[in-house]
Amino acid sequence: MKPLSQLEKQIGIVFKNKKLLQNAFIHRSYLNENKDSAFTSNEKLEFLGDSVLSLITSVFLYEKYPKFEEGDYTEIKSAIVKTGSLAEAAEQLQLGNYLYLSKGEELGDGRRNRNILADTFEALIAAIFLDQGFQKANQFVTTYLFKGVLDQLIEKEDYLSAKSRLQEIFQAKYKTIPQYKVLASEGPEHKRIFTVAVFLHKKKLGTGKGLSKKEAEEKAAVHALRAINF
C-alpha cells in the first residue's frame, strides 16, 4: 500500500487534516478485521462526495453549455457520474493502491473492483471539499474526471440513452416518436420482470426485459437501434 503523501503530491493538494484524507480510503471490509480502529468507513464521505460531484457537474454544464436544455443536462450528468466513468478516473490516479481493505477483499482483487474505486473517488472528492473548499474540489473534478472526457462525450452525443437516441432518429426520419408497449409482467411483486416492445407505427422493432418498465424500455430501444442500423 502506497503512502498517501504520494497521492497528495500527484494531485497537488496538501491536506490540513491527514486523517480526513485517510478516512476516504477506509473500506468497510477493513473495519470488520480492525474493530478497534479510530476510523469509520468511507461511506459517509462517499455520500457527501456524490452530492458535491453533482453540484460541480451541474455548475460546469450550466456555465459551459448555456444553450442546452434541462433534459440534456440530466442526460450528460448521468453519463459522466456513472460508476464506469468514476472508476476510470480512480484508475488513472491509481487510488486502489491507497485502499485499506480486509484480507478477504484484498485476495478478491478489491483494489481493482470498479464499484469500490468509484465509491473511493467520490469519498476523495468529499475529503477535498471538507479540507480545502469547493473551488479545490471543483478543480480536482475538472482535471481528473471532466478533462478530455466531457467535451468528447458531448461532441459524439454518447451521453444520450438509447431511448433518447431512438426518439431523435424517429423525429428526424419519420416525424413521429417511438411507441412502447408492455407485453408481459411476470414474477412476484418485489421481483417483477417486465417485457416491453417498441414500435414504429405498427411495426415492432425491438423488445427488452427488465426489473422496471424503464429498464425494459431502454433495452428495447437498444435492440431497435440495431434493427435500423444505428
TrEMBL record:
Q: Which cofactor does it need?
A: Mg(2+)
The alphabetical list of record keywords is:
Cytoplasm, Endonuclease, Hydrolase, Magnesium, Metal-binding, mRNA processing, Nuclease, RNA-binding, rRNA processing, rRNA-binding, tRNA processing
Matching entries from Pfam families are given as:
dsrm, Ribonucleas_3_3
Give the principal location in a single coarse category. Answer: cytoplasm
Residues forming the catalytic site:
50, 122
Subcellular location, record wording = Cytoplasm
Give GO terms for biological process. mRNA processing; regulation of gene expression; rRNA processing; tRNA processing
Q: Where does Mg(2+) bind?
A: 46, 119, 122
Q: Provide any one GO MF term from the record.
A: metal ion binding
Question: Record's SMART domains?
Answer: DSRM (SM00358), RIBOc (SM00535)
Q: Which InterPro entries match?
A: dsRBD_dom (IPR014720), RNase_III (IPR011907), RNase_III_dom (IPR000999), RNase_III_sf (IPR036389)
Q: Where is the DRBM domain?
A: 161-230
Question: What reaction(s) does this enzyme catalyze?
Answer: Endonucleolytic cleavage to 5'-phosphomonoester
Q: Which SUPFAM superfamilies match?
A: dsRNA-binding domain-like (SSF54768), RNase III domain-like (SSF69065)
Its Enzyme Commission number(s) read 3.1.26.3
Q: Has keyword Metal-binding?
A: yes
Subunit structure and binding partners: Homodimer.
Q: Which NCBIfam families match?
A: RNaseIII
Identify its protein family: Belongs to the ribonuclease III family.
Q: What is the documented function of this protein?
A: Digests double-stranded RNA. Involved in the processing of primary rRNA transcript to yield the immediate precursors to the large and small rRNAs (23S and 16S). Processes some mRNAs, and tRNAs when they are encoded in the rRNA operon. Processes pre-crRNA and tracrRNA of type II CRISPR loci if present in the organism.
Specify the protein name.
Ribonuclease 3
